Amino acid sequence: MIHVLLIAAALFPPSAAAATGGHPGAIFNFGANARALGMGNAYTALSQDDSSVYYNPAGLGSMDKRSVSLTEATLVDGVNYNYIGLGQPALGGGFGLNLLRMGVGGVDGRDENNQATGSLGYSEMAFAAGYGRRGLLDGQASIGVSAKMLQRNFPGDTNRLYGLDAGASYIVPGFDSRLQVAGMAQNLLQASMGDTSDKMPLLLKLGAAWQVVPGLRLVGDFSSDRQFSMGTEYGWRFAAFRVGVQQQGLTFGTGLYLWNGFQVDYAVYNDVTTGLSNRLSVGWRLPTAEKVEGPDTPRPDDPWREAMQALQDRRYVAAVWSMDKALKGEGRLLAGAKMDMARRLHEMITGLNLLGLPARQEELVVENDANVLAGKAVMKYLEGQNAQAQLFAQAALGTYQQEDALHGLLEFLDKRTGRKTPREDILPLRELITVKDARARRALFGLQFPEALREWEEIIVLEPENALAWTRLGSAALASGDIERAKKAYHRFMLARGWN
Predict the structure, then answer these.
(1) How far is the C-alpha of 271 from the C-alpha of 26, rounded, in Å?
(2) Helix intervals (H) in 124-188
(3) pLDDT tens digits, 302-350
(4) Contact partners, residue 222, CB within 8 Å, separation at least 6
(5) Which domains, and CATH codes, for the chain?
(6) Please, which residues have CB within 8 angstroms of residue 499's CB and are 6 or more apart in sequence?
(7) Residue 463's closest CA among 442, 433, 486, 441?
(8) pTM (2 decimals)?
(9) 3-class DSSP state for residue 360?
C-alpha cells in the first residue's frame, strides 16, 4: 500500500500532520465559500444560507430565500476542490444540501520495491444535509442539525466516514439585534465503514458576529483544537471588502452583489494544510416566481405599501406576510432598512406568539388609547429604537392592564433591552409623565444631572410637543454645562410654543 501513503503525503504534508487540516474529514474545514474565507473562515455565527450546512446548521433557520452556490479552487500540488450548495426555507426554518469533492490525479505510484506502477489518483466525495429551526427563546435562538457522509477512494480501496453535526445561535438582547453568538459541535456522532479505523474527530466551535454599524461587521471563531480566527466585512452599495486573520496569516476577499440576487465572491486564503490558494464562489439567492396576471397586476412595490398600511392598522401578521412578498423581488444580500424591518417584525410576532395566540392579534386591532400607544411601541421597535419602544409599551400596559397582548409586548421589549420595567412604573401615559417629571426635578435639585436629563428626555419621547419638558431639559443641560444641548432644547421649546 505504499502508493496510498504517497498520495496521502501529497495531500497532507508531514509538517501539517498534527495541524487542524491533517485529520480524517478535513474536507469539512477547507471552506465552503469565498465570502467566509475572506474573513478568515470565521463564519460560525454569520452563515444564513446553504453554506450553513457546512458552518453551522442553526443558520439554516434564518434563511429568507432559496440559495444556490458553487465554489472552485485548486489547492496544493494540483488538488482540485469543489463545493455545491442548495438551501430552501421551509417548515419554520430551512433545509440545506451540500456536495463536496476533492481529488488529485497523475501521482506516480510505486510498489514496495520502489518500482513504478503507473499513474494513480485519489479523491474524496462528501454529501451533507441539514435542517435549522428558528423562533426559539422568544424568537432570539435557532438550532440545527446536519448529517454527512464522506467517501474516500484510494487505488483499490474505498471507505466511508459518517458524522452528525449540531449547532445553535442566539441574538443577544440589548444590542438592537446587532450581536449574535453561536456554537457548533462537529462530528458529535461518528462512524466508519470499510477497511479503515478512521473516524472524523469531535470538534467544538464558538463564534460571534457583530454589526458595528450598517454595512460593517466583525466576526470571530474559536475551536476546541485551539484555532482562532477573526475577520471583518464592509459592504458598500453593490460591493463588499473583507479581511481576516488566523494563525496561518492574513486572508483577503471581495464580493459583488449583482442583479436578481446573483453574487460573485473571491478570496485569497492561506490554509494550514493546503497552503495559499485562490477561491472563487458564485451564488444566487432566488426569489419565488410569481404569476403575472396581466396589465392590472399591482406594481412590485404594492406589497410594501400594503405592509405599511397593515402596520398602521396594527394587523401585524398581515403586515409581515406583505413584507415577505415585497422582499422576494429584492435579490441583493444587503437589503438595508426594509430587510431589517421585516426581520424585526418576524421576531416580534414570534416573541408575542401572534400566530399561536390569534386572540392577541385581535386585541391589538381594537381602537383604544392603549393600542394606539402599543402601535407606537411597535413602530419604534421596527425602527431599531428599542428603549423608546419599551417606554410606549410601558404606557400602553399602564393604560389598560387587562389586555394579554400588551403584557406580552412589554415582556418582549424588556428582553430586547435587557432592562426589566419596574412594576410600579407601569402607569397610564399622563401619570407616567407626571412621575418622571417629579423624579427629574428631584434629581436636578440634588445635582444629579444625568438622571434629570434622562427622565425629561423620556418624557419628550412620549410627548414630543411637551414645551415644559423641553424648557426643563434645557435648564438641566445648562446647569450641567452642556451649552449646545441647552440651545437645542430651548429652540425646541420655542417651536413647541409656536414661536419662531
Answers:
(1) 11
(2) none
(3) 788 888 888 999 999 888 888 877 766 544 434 567 778 888 898 899 8
(4) 205, 206, 207, 228
(5) 2-286 (2.40.160.60), 302-425 (no CATH), 429-497 (1.25.40.10)
(6) none
(7) 433
(8) 0.57
(9) helix
